[in-house]
Amino acid sequence: MQMNLSTRQLRAFVALAELRNFTRAAVACHLSQSAFSSLIRTLEDDLGLRLFDRSTRHVDLTVEGREFALSAQRVLLEMDTALGQLRERAALERGKASLALLPSLAAGWLPAVLAGYRAQHPGIEVEVFDILSEPCIERVRNGQADFAIAATRAETPELRAEPFHTDEFHLVAHSGHALLALPEVKPRDLLPFDFVHLSRNTSVRQYLEAATLPLQMRTLLEVDQLATVMGMVRAGLGISVVPALALFHFQQTGIATRLLKWPQLRRAIYLVRRRDRSLSLAAQSLCDWIMARRPVASEAAAPVAASRKRID
Amino acid sequence: MQMNLSTRQLRAFVALAELRNFTRAAVACHLSQSAFSSLIRTLEDDLGLRLFDRSTRHVDLTVEGREFALSAQRVLLEMDTALGQLRERAALERGKASLALLPSLAAGWLPAVLAGYRAQHPGIEVEVFDILSEPCIERVRNGQADFAIAATRAETPELRAEPFHTDEFHLVAHSGHALLALPEVKPRDLLPFDFVHLSRNTSVRQYLEAATLPLQMRTLLEVDQLATVMGMVRAGLGISVVPALALFHFQQTGIATRLLKWPQLRRAIYLVRRRDRSLSLAAQSLCDWIMARRPVASEAAAPVAASRKRID
DNA sequence: CGATCTTACGGGATTCGTAAACATA
DNA sequence: TATGTTTACGAATCCCGTAAGATCG
C-alpha cells in the first residue's frame, strides 16, 4: 500500500487515456516519447497490472485502466483545487485577517489605511474589533484576533509586543477658554476647571491620572465615549485631555486644542501578537501594511485630519 | 500549476501534521530524519509557502498548512481507495465476467465448473447468457459478453475463435427401440422412424441435416428445447440425435443412447472473443479456468453425468 | 546541556533523451 | 513501407543516509 505515485504519473496516465496515443500524450506532458513510455510502463509495474492494451497502431484502456482513469481524474482535480486554493492564499488573493485595536485608532487612523489595503487585496476578508486595550489583548490571547494594537505592553510567555506608536496628549476646550491664553499649560492649571473624564478602564484615563498625581482634578462627569466628551466640551460644560490619535473627534468649530508637553504624559501603543504561532499570510501582509503606515509622532495630527475627511 | 507532487510527500506532510515531530514522523515514514526534513522543505519550496512553524522544540501547522492538511488527507484517502479497488481487482477479489454459451453447455457442463470458480473467487460476479450460437457471437460483438462458447467459428477482423471442444452425436430412443439392436447405425437407418427435431436455427439441427443430406428424415415435430425432445423420446413418440454435451438430458430410465460414429457428424465448438480489446482480469481468469476444464472428447459423457447430480 | 531540526556531502537509484530495434496495418 | 511503440544506454538529476552544525528550552 505504501506506493509512491506522483502527480506526473497520474497526469501522464490521464493524458494517454484521453489521447490514446503515446506520441501526442508525450508532447502534452513535455516529455520525450521514450521517457513517456517508460513512465507508463513503470506505473503499470507499480500497480501490478496493465492499464492499456497497446499495439503499434492502437492504444486503448483496459477494463481496469478505465476504472483507474476515473479515480485518477478525480484525484487530480482535487489536487489541483487544493493547490489552487493554496496559491490564492500565497498570492494574497484570498484569506482572512483579524485585528483588535483601540476605538480611537479604529475610527481615526485605520479607515484610510484599511481602504488602501483592501484596494490592493480585495479578496482578503478583514475583521476589526474596535475595543479597549484589555479586551484587545484578550482577543489575541484566545485566538479571535491575529494581532492587536493596544496601549498595553503585553510581554508574556504567550505574547510578544513591539512599539507601534507614541501618542501625545492635547488639551481640548471651548474656543476662548481661559487656559488657551496661558503661555504654558501645566497640570495644576487644569484644577480650577470642570473636567470631562473618560471611564477608569480606558488607557487615556489611566495615563492622565498617573501624570497628574497627586493632584485631584475637578470631575464634571465621567463618560465612555470620546464623542460624548467632544459634545460636552463643545457645549462649554468642561475641558478634557485626549491623545493625539483621538483629536479627530475635536476638529470642530467652537473647540480649540493645544498640545501638552508634559514629559510624563505620553501614551505608548504596542502591536501585540502571539509568540507561538506565526500569522497567516493574510494577517502577516495586513500587519506589514499597517506597520508601514503607522502614525508618525511628529505628524500625529496630520494623518488624523486627513482621515477625518473620509469618515465624515 | 504543473507541479510534481508525490504521494510520499503528501504522506510525509500528513504524518508530520499529525505527529508534530520530525523525528517520529520520519520513523513513521521509514525515512531518516534528515531525509524527512528535506522532503518537507522541498514540499514547502514547491508550494511556495511554509506549512509548519518550527523551532527545535516545537512543530505546528501554519494556517495555510492547516488548510492544506485537509486537502491532503482527502486526496490520500481517495488515492488509497482507488489503489485498494485496483488491488482487489488484481487479486481477483472483485470484478465482473460475462460469458455467452450454448444452453446445453450452460446446463450440463458449466454448473460444476462455475461452482469451483465461484468457490475460489467469491467476489467476482459472473453473468451467463445461455443462448444459441448466433446470439452468443452477437453478445461478444456488441460487448455484452466478454467471450462466448458457441458452435460458430467466428473468425472476423473483430473476433477471434479458438477450438474449445469437438462434440460427438448420439442416437436417443426409447429403451428397446429396434435401432438399438442393429450392429451399426447409419444415416439411412433413421429414415423409417418418427424423428423429433430441434428448430432449424440450432447448430444441432444444422449439423444433423448436413450429415444426412440428401436424405429426408421423417419429422414427427420440431421443438425448441432439448428437454422437450427428451420428453417425447421417453414417451416413445420418436427418436432423435443429440450431441454428447446434451446427453445429460437423456440419462433417464426408459431412454437409451448410442454413439453415432459418423465421421462427418462432429460438432466443433469454439471459444470466441474480441480481437481488439483484452479481457478484464476477472474475465481472463474465468476464461483460463474454463479452458483448463473444458470437456475432453473421450470423456464427454462422464462430466455430464457428474454435473447432473448437481443440477437435479 | 540535551533534544531536535537543518545543512553538507558522497553514493546509489531514478529518470531523461538520443538512437536503434521492433511491430503492425 | 510507414507509423508508432519498445528497448538500449550514457548522462543528468534526484533522493537517501551519515555526520556535523545550529538552535531552542
Please supply descriptive tags for the structure shown above:
rod-shaped, two-stranded antiparallel sheet, D-Maltodextrin-Binding Protein, domain 2, seven-stranded mixed beta sheet, DNA-binding, 312 residues
Notes on the protein architecture:
The structure is a homodimer of 312-residue chains. By secondary structure, chain A is an alpha/beta fold. Chain A folds into three domains: 84 residues, Winged helix-like DNA-binding domain superfamily/Winged helix DNA-binding domain (Arc Repressor Mutant, subunit A, Orthogonal Bundle), CATH 1.10.10.10; 95 residues, Periplasmic binding protein-like II (D-Maltodextrin-Binding Protein, domain 2), CATH 3.40.190.10; 100 residues, D-Maltodextrin-Binding Protein, domain 2 (3-Layer(aba) Sandwich). Chain A is 44% helix and 22% strand. Chain A contains eleven helices and eleven strands. In chain A, strands 3, 4, 5, 6, 9, 10 and 11 form a seven-stranded mixed β-sheet that branches. A two-stranded antiparallel sheet of chain A has the order 1-2. Chains A and B meet through helix 1 and helix 4 of A and helix 1 and helix 4 of B. Chain A binds a DNA duplex (25 and 25 nucleotides) through helix 3.
SSE layout and pairings?
2 copies of one chain form a homodimer.
Chain A (H helix, E strand, L loop, with lengths): L6 H13 L2 H7 L4 H15 L4 E3 L4 E3 L1 H28 L4 E7 L1 H18 L3 E7 L2 H9 L5 E4 L8 E16 L12 H4 L3 E5 L4 H10 L5 E6 L2 H9 L5 E4 L11 E5 L6 E9 L6 H12 L8 H11 L1
Parallel strand pairs in A: 3-4, 3-5, 7-8
Antiparallel strand pairs in A: 1-2, 5-11, 6-9, 6-10, 6-11
Helix pairs in contact in A: 1-2, 1-4, 2-3, 5-11
Chain A binds a DNA duplex (25 and 25 nucleotides) through helix 3.
